[in-house]
Each structure stands twice: as structure tokens, then as C-alpha cells.
Amino acid sequence: MTLPRSVRNTIPNTDPAPRRGGSQARGEWALRDRPALLWMVLAVLVALVHQWVPDATWLMVHLVLLGAITHSIFVWSTHFAQALLKTPEALDTRANQSRRLALLLLGTTLVLIGVPTTWWWLVLTGAILVSVAVLWHALMLRRRLRNALPGRFRITIRYYQVAAICLPVGIAFGATLALGLSQNWHDRLLVAHMMTNLLGWVGLTVTGTLITLWPTMLRTPMDTRAEHLARLALPILGVSLVIITTGALSGLRQVTVSGLVLYAAGLAWWGRALWQPARRRPPREFATASVASALLWLAVGIGTTIALVAQGSVSDSVGTLGAIFVVGFAAQLLTGALSYLMPTALGGGPSVVRAGQAVFNKIAALRLVIINVGLAMCLLPVPSLVRVTVSVLVLLALAAFLPLMIGGIIRSVRARRALGDGLPPLEPGARVERPPSALTLGQTVAGVTALLVAITVGVGLDPVAAGLGAPATGDSSTATVPATGETTRVEVSAKGMTFTPDTVSVPIGNRLVIDLVNDDVSTTHDLTLGGQKTPRLAHGERAEIVIDVVSGPMEGWCTIVGHRQSGMTFTVTTEGTPAAVPSGTADGATDGATDGAPAPTQNGGDAHAEHGGAPILGDDPPPVIQPVDPTLAPAPGATTHQVTLTAQEVPLEVAPGVWQQRWTFNGQAPGPTLRGTVGDVFEITLVNDGTLGHSIDFHAGALAPDEPMRTIPPGESLVYRFTATRSGIWMYHCSTMPMSSHIAAGMTGAVIIDPPGLPEVDHEFVLVQSEVYLDTVAQSAEEATEVNVDKIMADDPDLVVFNGIANQYDEHMLQAKVGDRVRIWVLAAGPNRLSSFHVVGGQFDTVYEEGHWVLGGPGAENGSASDGEGTGGSQVLGLLPAQGGFVELEMPEAGHYPLVSHLMIDAERGAHGFLEVTE
After folding, report:
1. Is residue 733 marked as binding?
2. For this UniProt entry, which segments traverse the membrane (predicted)?
3. Looking at 555, 575, 595, which one is the last position of a domain?
4. Residue 581 to residues 353, 480, 857: CA-CA distances in angstroms?
5. Annotation-wise, does 742 bind a ligand?
6. Which of 366, 682, 757, 814 could form an S-S bond across to 447 if both were Cys, CB 3.0 to 4.6 Å?
7. Residue 62 labelled as part of a binding site
8. What tens digit of pLDDT does each residue of 757-798 get?
9. Are 551 and 584 in contact (CB under 8 A)?
10. Binding site annotation covers 50?
11. Across residues 437-445, what is the average pLDDT?
């Protein structure tokens, strides 16, 4: 079917008119073409180095949505409005458009700088500039409508106007999030902010545009019902956005869900206009296939949001929603639309357009398979390293658009020059000949192969998590017991610190099949039994252990650090008299702990690491590879502190030349020291990038622990918000049970809230004292093993350390000069040992302990005592586990002053360093 010419002419011109008349979009235009490319390049760079970038997730999302997408909406909605309405150029000149784009660019830049740096005046200024730019944009759209002749598809401009109203509202919600609200109000505003911007600003612009753009991209007539369907859908979508926002702000989940369902219904009604063109000419190029994929991910995102809102867990799943809406929907929509629009906007006739689009179509199927199948895999409960390798491949597939975009522009420009710049524009409604399909079977196979390679690499890096590496058969010593030929099967649930059931009785000689399922939503579990070991299972995952012939009693346990000691054991009893009891399996033992080795200790080894001397702390230790800087920076000027803490399990040096597999915040143990003043708001995003459940507890804030301190499984995140109301040095730590194991493994840190009137000093240092419990004395990162829980329970540390590494400040000394005033903050993080901090050769004239001044204080002269005589002093700062404070002193002469815990056995275990004082 061919539409009448009057209808075809309403489709946006595929090759806009020359600059001297009509559309102004032809040719290269820096403010139109380059900012979107810039924001996409920055998003890729942040993704590559996200571990070292503050608020990296927020930044990546907003580089795409606020940066690239918003800029593109400004540019192309103006272009389509002009193509549809055919208004005079003087109504909105290129110079006028450039001013708006420059204002948008400046405002976006200020917001993207202000949020990570917590310069809220910068954020507010940027938000205002962006809002002014978008309202200016809306006024120009209204002006075009009022001056245009009657015509079809004016409804598209109405979509743009409603969308433009949504963005300032969404920006206001986002700015309010920075005020440090309660968790309840933060969650409400987060939903309102996300949905107003995603479904309003972006969603309405997309639906308004695709009514005409979609059939143009497919090079086929549009559905004759398209305008009618669009007119009916707009009120539905607009009302649903009001319902969603109202429900979110009022905390009425069912109202929010009903609004989302109504929005989905309006989208489905609108989508009927896209179905007929797609049936007539299915997508054959990257542009159309990418836009189609984006629309599918939009539907997935809305469905996921409905489920999360109903459960009240949106704030904990921002990462999941971000992946769906940003990668699946926004990024694919942007790259697909630009793949079509950029060649046509550059103009030059059909052959020039085809030349540019040919570049955009390169490896189309390969990219689409990797992006869409890879994203789906990343959203599934796959092992963390598999998720990492696949996500890197997805990022590369997305980033491939950038050089292709540059190449396509260069190809179009060269083709124009070769044919001459005086080519006339295409007539309205004219069609460029449809190229051969870019979605080839060979590239599809290549995309699947690339994903399989990425999966293989991830599995190779962590075979146990992928269910590999365990012995394939049962106890090899059961050959003396004849098999009965019968099977005992039991389903075992792992939840909390319990297997249910935790005992099974099996007739001698039977085959035993244990079907283990992890029903724990917060952490991973596994089971080792009879020489076999399941992989670590995430919530809902299952694995089997098969013992071919049961010959006697056995005991198994969860091998996650601390879980066995917390009671997570599984016992196999037998019925009948065994013909032979396998060695090591009687009396509750087993012959296969981890990788088949005997396991009287947590990690399967029976070697007890020596402590208090050689070989851990020898007389001639090697240099510490990466010492921790003890210098304490002043409190930042901001009153709201946004910090991302990522739970990671990495090998770290715990003594010179000695390594342990540490559980960390941001790859360091102890975690980053946070600092502020009374009244400051701390917004902490905890991201679990480890292989087991983790959590966080901040002593610096007072709030109900139920939600913010809950354990989250690998791959998830939560937001923890508190207001600092009292001064002191406060401990934060992972509160997942067994808590002693998580703290001892390194998941602790300090929050310093300055007392009012705290005077400046010449030097400030922070020392976090903690213990290290070694399972083996590993001399390289590759040999590192995890914390030994048996030693924790026996309070038998191998090392006691300042800032995570024993004796590191013997070599890398703290520095001061004679007469300098030095303040040393100390936190006894434990988990078991107290601290008696002392500076050999020094005397404390000021002592602040657990929130009160023991000696000296603001207004007191240096050296004054609480009795007012000026002769009192202190020799130690005594702290129980989790207590903290600081001391101040001045050194009378040059020299080396030892810093120790005066529990001397702990000083000998590594709680030792030097303050070097020079003239």
C-alpha cells in the first residue's frame, strides 16, 4: 500500500534543505553533532575506570541520559518540528538554537561536576540552567505551532511540549534528593525522579518522534491510523505520569503501580502504529534493529519497575534498573536513531546517504547480539567474574558505535565532495533505496561466539563459583561396601546459618543425592561433603552432591568463612553396620573439606601460622609494597557527603611480604576514612561486588538497623543515609554474621566527626588498629587464603596492625618537626583486641576519648590539664574494641618516637611504628 503524497510529505525530510533556506540542519554543525559524542565518550571512559571514580554509577547514568540523550532530544525534536510544520527560519534561527544548546551544555557540565564533588551550589546552578534551556525549548516549540499552517502530525509537537514540562519537574525531584532526607522520603523521590525523567522527558519524546520516524527508517509507508493512535495515547500517557508521581510522593505503592500499568497500556496502544510498518518491512539495518531492541528493553524496564515498586525495593535495585533503561533502552535508542539521522542530516543525495549509512551498519548483527544477549546475561544470577567479562564485552560493543559514527560522518563528507556540494536536497517523502540486510547470520554467530568466549574466561577465573573443579565422584574408599542399587534423595535448603534438614539417615550402600538450594536472599552458601563441594550458590540457585556408595557417617558444612562455626553443618548418619568405615569420616570428620584436604581449621589446612616473631615478622623484612598513608585530610566543606563503598574480596599485604585474601571496602582494609562535622548528612551507597553477602553498619549515625544494615547478596546495592549528630571517631563495619569474621577480614573503617571548636594543628594522622588471623603464611597474592575463623574464636591473632599492615610505619614513618603540634586519631576496630595507644618518649597534653575531653580541649592552653594547673598529662589512650579518640602532643627534640599499643604482645605482633621528628 502506498500513501497519498499529502501523507508522505508529512514524513520528516531525509535530507534537509540547504542553509540558505528551509531547514537549518544540513551539513556539519559543531554544537549539534559533537556534544552527544563527547558525553558518550566520557560515559565509556567512566565505565572503564569506574572503581576509581566517585559516584561512578550515577555519573555513567547521567552522562548518557542528561548528557547525550537530552542533547539529542533538543537537536532532533527541533529538527522534526521544523520538518513537520515547515515554519519560517526566522522563528528560530540557528544562532538562537546554538544559544540554547550552549546553555544546556553548560548546565549539564555543572551538574555532572557538582554531584561527585558534592558542590551543591554548582549542582543547583546547573539544574537551573538546564531547566531554563528546556523551558526555552518548549516555548520555541509552542511558537512554531502557533505560526504553522494547518497540517497533520501536529500531535508530535504536543508530545514534545509535554515532555519538556517533565524534565524541570524531574530535575527538581533530583535536586531535592540531595537534601539528606530520610530513607522513606528518599525512596519516594527517587521513584518520582526516575519515572518523570525516563517515561516523561525521554519516553514521550520517543513516542512522539517514532510515529513518523519509524516508517521512514524502514523505508515503508506508515500506518494510516498512526496519527489517530498517537492522539489517543498522549492523554493516557500524561495522566499515567501524574498518577505515578502522585503515588510515589505519597508512598502509595498500589497507586504508583496502577500508574505504571496505565502507562504500559498507553504505550501498547501507541505501539500499534509501529507494528504494521515493521510487519511490512522488518528491520534489516543496525538503526532499525537497535531502535526495536530499545523499545523491547523499555517494556522490560517498565515491567521490572512495576515489580520493584510493588515490593518496595526500587532504591536497592537502581543498578538493575540503570542497566535496563540506560544500556538496553537509552543507549540503543540513541545509537540506532543517530545511525539513521546523522547521514541524512549531512545531506548530499541518496548515494551520499547510503555511503554514510554503510559505515553505521558495519558489524551490526555482531554488536546487537553482544549488547542484548550480554545485557540479559548480566541481569541473571551468573558468577560475578562471568558478569564482569560479559559486561566488558557489552561495553566494547556499545563503544564501537563511536568510531563508526566518526567514520560515517567522514565517509558522508567525502562522498559529498566527490559529487559536488551543489546537490539539491531530497524531495519531501523521497526514499533512499533500501540497502541489503546488515543483519547477517555470520555476524550473529560471531556475536554468540564472542559471548561464549567471555563466559569461558569468567569461568576460568573463578571455576568454583561456576560449579566446576569439584570431584566428579563420591568417596573413593567406599569400594569395600557393596552397592544396594537404591538411591536416597534429599532436598536441602540453605538459609541463614542453617541447613534444613541438617541431618539425613541413609542405609549403608545406598547412593545419596543431595539437592541443595540456596533460599537465603542475602548471601551465598555452599556445601562440602564426602570429598565433593558445590559451587557458591546465589539466591535461588541449586546444585547436587552425589555420593555413589555411602559407607559410613559423614559430616559436611558450608565453607564460606565463619558459616561452619555459626552452626551451618550437615550430618549423614547410616543405617546398618558398615563393612568398612572410610578413614577420616568417622566421629563427625570427613575426608574432603576443600579440594579434598583435611580441614580441622576453617579453610581446610592444619598448619597454624606462627605469630609474634619469625617467620611473619622477621628481623630483615622485605619492603611493604603499598603502604597506607596515615595522613588525615581536613573535613570537606560540603554538608552532604555522597560516598560509594564497594565490597570486594582482594588479596592484600598484611605484613611485609605476607598476604591474605581480604574482604574490603573499595579494595582497601581498613576502608576509606570519612570525615565531617556535626549536622552533616552522609549518603552511602554500598555495592556488593564480592562473592558472598555483605552489609554495613555506621556507628556515627543513630537509626533503626532493619533496612540500611541488612545483608545484600552479590551484585546488589543499597543506600545508607544518616545524619551525624554527635562528634567523635566512629567505627563502621560489615555487620553480616559471623560479624567477627567480616571485621577481622578487613571490612571496617573510621568516620571522624569533628568536635565543635576543634583547633587546627600542624599534622593529623589516623591509625585504625585491628587484628589479622592467618590460615597460611602466604608470600604472594596468588597464595593468599582467607581469614582463619578458629583463631578468631580463640582470640589468637597472628598480627595486630595499624591501618591494615603490620609494622608498615617502621619503614614508612609518620613525619613532623620539632615544635609541631601533632594530633593522632586512634580507633580500636578489633574485632577482639583492645588498644593502649602510647608514643614512646612523648606525653599527651590533650586527650579526647569517646566523645568527651579527658584532658585539655578548645580554649585550653596547650599542655593544660583538667585540674587547671597546667601540669597534668597522659601516657596512654586506652580503648576497648570499637572505641576511639585522639591525642595531641608536641615533640621537644628531633628523633624517632615509637608508636605502639602498650599491650606489648600486640606491639610485638605488629601494632608498632615510628613518628620521625626532624629539626
Report:
1. yes
2. 36-53, 59-77, 98-115, 121-139, 159-178, 198-217, 229-249, 255-275, 287-309, 321-342, 363-382, 388-410
3. 575
4. 79, 9, 70
5. yes
6. 366
7. no
8. 899 999 999 999 999 999 888 888 888 888 888 899 889 999
9. no
10. no
11. 86
